[in-house]
């Protein structure tokens, strides 16, 4: 009653506060808290020890799962068998029939492509001396080459590591090798599905392939452990050489293809004679390289071969090779990083083109027109021209610059530039032509091969697809 000056809301609020205070006072919470505190201070906690069982008493039961012991009475449930890892077919040791993986479905188609290979190999290719066209005429021929959708085909299952093209002038037959040891044959002239077939002559990367220069019915392919010859006349993959050391590349030392020079990844080179019955090399030589990626024999003087390794590009004389202590006839210097390839020019061998991981193409030449003169002087040549090129790429085969067999002064190499293209350079460093097609060519062609007499270019990418200009 003494708060008549307050509003109705404030009087009601004050009344609620008074009633709540009386309610909590009636509970006597302070006394309860003091009583509980007194009880807690007087109580003593005793630590009890577990009683050890007597000898005649049984031990308490414990989980056999925690003890990692199999249960006694309950049988174990049969665990489902895990699916076995996918196993790829393996190529057998020694010779075996030339049977593709799709033989069961397309046996008639396989016979067709093998018979085509045999037929075009029997035709004699015109060996008359061809005049090297001048640069302007050569550029016009390059401009006339085009890529169409029907000239694109997935020939092998994975990344293309090497390619070879048959020298026939009537039929376009291309061979490609991938990282799983497959070798694919594609008859480009055949427009239907039976034009391409896959064989499995190797278990590892097919690093190098060549049709025999004297008998194109033979296709030689090299993997890390073996060199094989696919003989279409007998429909057999013969085994020429086998080694536990890793092979990287090979080239023919003679026109009859009876002897080959082979490079090992660890820096050694070996000479193999196909006429001997044994599967080992005739000579193994340490040339002082940490790694040897390519070997190439001089086109005119077959006693000279060039090896490209980590940062080394040297020319050696096969006649003076020995097991150790080999000295090069000439060294091509200037490479700062690893060299992917080095090749002589196709006619005279007076030029050398190299591809290096420092994104540069280098063209070497001698002071005179004949390159062998500088070889005999044992002097170090300097690069004639350098063309800048972006040559680094992940999951791509190493770029290789290859000479056009029809033109002494021009070579081709893939590119990472957009749009995707294959570029043609002159040995002066001048860009002559770029092969591209924004619709059909959308990937990088690291490996390329050129027909020896026709205006045909084949580029292979990292998915096993070939593009034919």
Summarize the structure.
Keywords: Repeat, WD repeat. Belongs to the WD repeat DDB2/WDR76 family. The protein is an alpha+beta fold and 469 residues long.
Notable traits:
469 residues, alpha+beta, five-stranded antiparallel beta sheet, five-stranded mixed beta sheet, elongated, WD40/YVTN_repeat-like_dom_sf, WD repeat, DNA binding
Shape: elongated
Overall average pLDDT: 83
Which structural class matches the secondary elements? alpha+beta
Distance N to C terminus: 110 Å
**How large a portion of the residues is in β-strands, by DSSP E?**
25-35%
Proportion in helices: 10-25%
- Adjacency order of strands in the biggest sheet: 1-10-9-8-7
Radius of gyration: 39 Å
Major β-sheet annotation: 5 strands, antiparallel
Summed up, the helix count is 5
Strand elements, count:
30
GO biological process, one term: regulation of DNA damage checkpoint
Function: Specifically binds 5-hydroxymethylcytosine (5hmC), suggesting that it acts as a specific reader of 5hmC.
Subunit structure: Interacts with CUL4A and/or CUL4B.
Region (Disordered): 45-64
Explained architecture:
It comes from Malurus elegans (Red-winged fairywren). Interacts with CUL4A and/or CUL4B. Belongs to the WD repeat DDB2/WDR76 family. Keywords: Repeat, WD repeat. GO terms for molecular function: DNA binding. The structure is a single chain. The protein is of the alpha+beta class. It has five helices and 30 strands. It has helices at residues 8-27, 29-42, 107-122, 135-143, 371-377, and strands at residues 96-97, 152-154, 160-165, 173-178, 183-187, 196-199, 208-211, 218-222, 226-231, 236-242, 247-252, 259-264, 268-273, 283-286, 292-297, 304-309, 313-317, 330-332, 339-344, 351-356, 360-365, 380-381, 383-388, 402-403, 410-414, 421-426, 431-436, 447-450, 457-460, 465-468. The strands form seven sheets. It has a five-stranded antiparallel sheet, with no helix packed on it. A five-stranded mixed sheet has the order 15-16-17-18-22. The protein has a four-stranded antiparallel sheet with strand order 2-30-29-28, with no helix packed on it. A hairpin with a 6-residue loop joins strand 7 (208-211) and strand 8. The longest helix has 20 residues, at 8-27. The radius of gyration is 39 Å and the shape is elongated. The N and C termini lie far apart (110 Å).
């Amino acid at each position: 009653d003494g708060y008549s000056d307050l509003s109705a809301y404030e009087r009601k609020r004050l009344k609620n506060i008074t009633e709540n205070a009386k309610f909590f006072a009636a509970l006597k919470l302070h006394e309860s808290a003091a009583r509980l505190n007194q009880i807690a201070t007087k109580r003593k906690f005793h630590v009890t020890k577990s009683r050890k069982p007597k000898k005649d008493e049984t031990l308490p039961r414990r989980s056999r799962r925690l003890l990692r012991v199999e249960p006694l009475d309950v049988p174990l449930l049969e665990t489902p068998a895990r699916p076995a890892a996918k196993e790829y077919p393996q190529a057998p040791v020694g010779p075996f029939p030339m049977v593709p993986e799709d033989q069961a479905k397309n046996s008639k188609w396989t016979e067709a492509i093998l018979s085509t290979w045999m037929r075009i190999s029997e035709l004699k290719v015109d060996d008359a001396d061809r005049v090297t066209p001048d640069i302007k005429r050569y550029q016009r021929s390059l401009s006339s080459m085009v890529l169409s959708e029907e000239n694109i085909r997935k020939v092998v299952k994975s990344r293309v590591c090497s390619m070879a093209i048959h020298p026939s002038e009537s039929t376009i037959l291309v061979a490609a090798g991938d990282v799983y040891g497959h070798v694919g044959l594609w008859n480009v002239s055949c427009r239907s599905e039976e034009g391409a077939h896959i064989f499995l002559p190797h278990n590892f990367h097919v690093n190098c392939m060549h049709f025999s220069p004297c008998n194109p019915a033979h296709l030689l392919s090299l993997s890390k452990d073996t060199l094989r010859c696919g003989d279409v006349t007998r429909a057999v993959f013969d085994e020429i050489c086998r080694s536990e050391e890793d092979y990287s590349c090979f080239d023919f030392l003679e026109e009859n293809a009876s002897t080959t020079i082979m490079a090992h990844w660890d820096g050694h080179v070996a000479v193999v004679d196909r006429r001997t019955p044994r599967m080992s090399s005739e000579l193994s030589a340490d040339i002082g390289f940490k790694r040897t990626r390519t070997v190439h024999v001089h086109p005119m003087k077959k006693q000279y071969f060039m090896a490209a390794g980590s940062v080394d590009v040297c020319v050696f004389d096969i006649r003076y090779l020995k097991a150790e202590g080999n000295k090069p006839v000439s060294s091509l210097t200037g490479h700062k990083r690893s060299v992917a390839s080095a090749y002589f020019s196709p006619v005279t061998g007076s030029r050398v083109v190299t591809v290096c991981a420092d994104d540069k193409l280098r063209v070497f030449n001698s002071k005179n027109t004949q390159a062998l003169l500088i070889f005999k002087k044992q002097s170090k040549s300097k690069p004639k021209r350098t063309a800048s090129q972006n040559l680094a790429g992940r999951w791509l085969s190493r770029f290789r610059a290859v000479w056009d067999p029809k033109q002494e002064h021009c070579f081709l190499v893939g590119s990472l530039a957009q749009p995707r293209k294959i570029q043609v350079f002159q040995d002066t460093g001048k860009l002559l032509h770029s092969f591209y097609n924004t619709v059909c060519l959308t990937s990088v062609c690291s490996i390329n091969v050129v027909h020896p007499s026709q205006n045909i270019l084949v580029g292979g990418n990292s998915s096993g697809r070939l593009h034919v200009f």
